[in-house]
Amino acid sequence: MDAVKLFCCKCLQLLSPPIKQCNNKHSVCGKCQAETKDDCPKCAGTLNAITYDELERVITQLNKEKVTFPCVYECKGCTYKVEQAEKLVHQSECKFRTFECEGKKYCGWKCDWSGNYDQILSHFKHFHDCSMSFKIERATKMNLDDDSLSLEPIDYYDGCALFWYKHKVDTSAQMVYWVIQYVGLQKDAAQYFYEFEIHDGPIRKIKVTEFCEGDSMDANSIFKSGQCVALSIPAVRSFLNMEDYLNFRFRVMKVKKPSTPKVEEHPSPSANIPSLLMHMHQAHINARSSPRNQNHFQKNKSEKKRPYFK
């Protein structure tokens, strides 16, 4: 059977009954039929309900056996294979997907850029004049009387990884938020954490350590969950200097795998007996092989042969 027939021509997911098909053999799953009505989304032909027992039987069997499928971005280099239930989640997190300008998505910037993962940093540096290192100290002017959003990309060790720095002032909630999100799979995001600190001199400081979230997660959802830097506006205001600048610093780090301590084995006394006997045997051989002991041994041997007379 042609593998293409297993997938809906609209959502590109594994077909689920009831299935409709046009005269050009383009199939549409049950979930997409409400949107397409009776028109094929690929060729605009009329869709007709079909009884495709073989296809439905194969699909049901594939779901039971948890068969994995290549990522839809395999042609762009993705090597992951995922189960049907995880396919949509993976596609939303995959580094090989097409990215829209995050400034437009999060801050509402007027930017229609779209491109690949390895083009993001260049876009922000040249078109938005912003980027950060994974370890930074900065003073930024804060207006805590109005709502605001800000965003910058974070370059981790010259392209080894990419993160988003996102900041929000919410006057209605009287809160200020910061979060750092990993660009890529959520399971990879869990390997990183960040330390964020605001300070006013060497003594007064507030420091928060938190795990990174994946970029597919909505930042506002993270703010609501509290798994970020979440401080009240009065608390942040107390750290502003006379010119309303806030001193802050942060660094992104990778979680270190716990080292397994080596257990030194202490052999039992009985385990040393064979090696002890071997050592004694070797010492005996060495003693007999020395010239002095050989003469003594020969002398004793000759004395034994001498007859004994009273």
From TrEMBL:
Annotated keywords: Metal-binding, Transferase, Ubl conjugation pathway, Zinc, Zinc-finger
Biased composition (Basic residues): 298-310
GO biological-process terms attached to the record: proteasome-mediated ubiquitin-dependent protein catabolic process
An example molecular function term from Gene Ontology annotations: ubiquitin conjugating enzyme binding
Catalytic reaction(s) noted: S-ubiquitinyl-[E2 ubiquitin-conjugating enzyme]-L-cysteine + [acceptor protein]-L-lysine = [E2 ubiquitin-conjugating enzyme]-L-cysteine + N(6)-ubiquitinyl-[acceptor protein]-L-lysine
Residue span of region Disordered: 287-310
InterPro entries noted in UniProt: 7-in-absentia-prot_TRAF-dom, SINA-like_animal, TRAF-like, Znf_RING/FYVE/PHD, Znf_SIAH
Stretches with biased composition (Polar residues): 287-297
Domain of life: Eukaryota
SIAH-type domain residues: 66-129
Enzyme class, broadest EC rank: transferase
Cellular component per GO, a single term: cytoplasm
Associated pathway: Protein modification; protein ubiquitination
E.C. no: 2.3.2.27
Domain remarks: The RING-type zinc finger domain is essential for ubiquitin ligase activity.
Family: Belongs to the SINA (Seven in absentia) family.
Role this protein plays: E3 ubiquitin-protein ligase that mediates ubiquitination and subsequent proteasomal degradation of target proteins. E3 ubiquitin ligases accept ubiquitin from an E2 ubiquitin-conjugating enzyme in the form of a thioester and then directly transfers the ubiquitin to targeted substrates.
Record's protein name: E3 ubiquitin-protein ligase
Organism: Pyrocoelia pectoralis
Taxonomic path: Eukaryota, Metazoa, Ecdysozoa, Arthropoda, Hexapoda
